[in-house]
Amino acid sequence: MFEEFKKFAMRGSVVDLAVGVIIGASFTGIVTTLVKDVLNPLIGLVTGGADFTNYFLVLRGGGPYPTLAAAQKAGAVILGYGAFVTSVINFLIVALTLFLIVRQINRLKAPAPAAPPPPSEEILLLREIRDLLQRQA
């Protein structure tokens, strides 16, 4: 059983997957900082400072509450749709960023154009006949 597990764990696809997960975890920190410190302020500037995280709907428990944290502290049952909107925006930014990176990597890995194939024997023979006819003329 140990040999079988060792064979499974050392297959190329498993090792590649492990490397991908580790790089993905590291990449998450970069993207989180990009979203939080660069893109969200720009989105806030465009939308007039809208902060989606404090968008919520009180289902039960009185209200009104000025913030999501205040509603949670009061024990109100809330539907915090703003956090979901923020997560969707973050996901779209991450997906777009990954798409652009993978697209760029694929462009770098594109094979160089292949050299044209050598002419066939028939073409070489026809060229030789052409050259002989030109010399005779």
In short:
The protein is built from 5 helices and 2 strands; from the N terminus they run H-H-E-H-E-H-H. The protein has 137 residues and is mainly alpha-helical.
Would you write up a description of this structure?
The chain has helices spanning 2-9, 12-46, 68-73, 81-108, 121-136, and strands spanning 57-60, 77-79. With 137 residues, it is mainly alpha-helical. It folds into two domains: 1-48, no CATH class; 51-137, no CATH class. The chain has a two-stranded antiparallel ribbon with strand order 1-2. Helix 2 crosses helix 4 (81-108). The radius of gyration is 31 Å and the shape is elongated.
Largest sheet entry? 2 strands, antiparallel
Structural class: mainly alpha
**Overall geometric form:** elongated
Give average pLDDT, whole number: 81
Task: Note the beta-strand portion.
Answer: 5-15%
> What is the distance, rounded to the nearest whole angstrom, between the alpha carbons of the first and last residues?
82 Å
- What is the element string, with H for helices and E for strands? HHEHEHH
- Based on CA atoms alone, the radius of gyration comes out at 31 Å
How are the SSEs ordered, and which strands pair?
Layout lengths: L1 H8 L2 H35 L10 E4 L7 H6 L3 E3 L1 H28 L12 H16 L1
Antiparallel strand pairs: 1-2
Which short descriptors sum up this protein?
single chain, 137 residues, mainly alpha, 2 domains, two-stranded antiparallel sheet, 68% helix, elongated
